[in-house]
Structure formats: structure tokens, C-alpha cells
Amino acid sequence: MGRPGTERVALAAVLLSLWHGVAWADSLQVSWADLRANRPASCATLLENYQSQPQCRQQAASARLLSSRYQACAPGVDALDGKIVRIAGYAHPLEFEFRDVKNFLLIPPLRQDCSHPPPPLPDQVIAVEFPDGMNVTADPVWVTGTLHLEPGKTHIVTTTYTLRATAVTPANIPDVDAGN
Fold first, then answer.
1. By C-alpha distance, which of 40, 75, 45 is closest to 62?
2. Which conformational region is residue 74 in: left (phi greater than 0), alpha (psi within -120 to 50 degrees), or beta?
3. Is the pTM of this model over 0.85?
């Protein structure tokens, strides 16, 4: 027979894994494309020019100069407001802290040809609040929680969404396809 209390620990582990499974089962899996579905047609040229800038510096300058126009062109999707969602992305801490991070930005893959890529458009950034805290690495993560259409601004980037996370788990790089 095992040590006293071993059965309780095992039961607690099973219940915890079931709870996390239920949270995922009840969530709507969304992609980065889903978050940008309501972009106005009138913004197509402006956004295409931003995304097709051949040089990172030009794109970064454009992001600073036209930030309010980009924000208006990335309004978010009302139908996702208040939904429990699951999305894969990269966690980016707001401060130079990587352990027990409770607030971070979730972003899609960025340009690989820049040493300091320009910020994604506001509807491609999610400000995440995760009370449990997590250790941030360069690896992608799945984030599950309640998504809100809540525009915000940090010292790094403007956001269209916030997400109150209940779970953060490892993801694979193909899970984080910005084109989806």
C-alpha cells in the first residue's frame, strides 16, 4: 500500500486535469484571422501598405505616425466579446520579467527579417491577465479564457482585445499560424 494521502494527491491531479479539459472543451478555438475579420473594406489599402513595407524602419515609423488610423481600421469582432476562447500565440512580457508573469501580450508570429520587428496591428495583439502567473519563454502557448473587446494601450503597443486567462499551456509552432 502507498503512503497515506497518496490517493488524495492522485485524485486531486485527476480532477485538476479534468477541470482543465472541461475549460478547453467549453472554449471556442479562434485564430488570428478570426480576430481581424471585421476590418473595414475602406482600410484595405492602408493596411496592405503597412503590412507590405519592405523595410522594418519604414513600417515602424508608419505604426507611430498613423497609430490612430490603424486602431480605427482594426476594430475587433463584437461577436467574440465575452466568449471563452482558446488561441495560440507568443507571450511577450510587459516588463523585463520572465518568471511569475501575470500580465503579458499575446501576439502572432512577427517578421523574421527584422532585429526589432514593428508592432502587429491592434487586432493582432491581446493584453492577457493571468492571475496564476506563468514563466515566459520563447516557445508558443495556448491561452484559454474570456476574451473582451477592450481597446487599450501599453508602452509597447495598442491593443484591441483583453483576455482574462484561466489556463496557459504549451503549444507547437504550427498551432500559431498568423494566416489562419
1. 45
2. beta
3. no
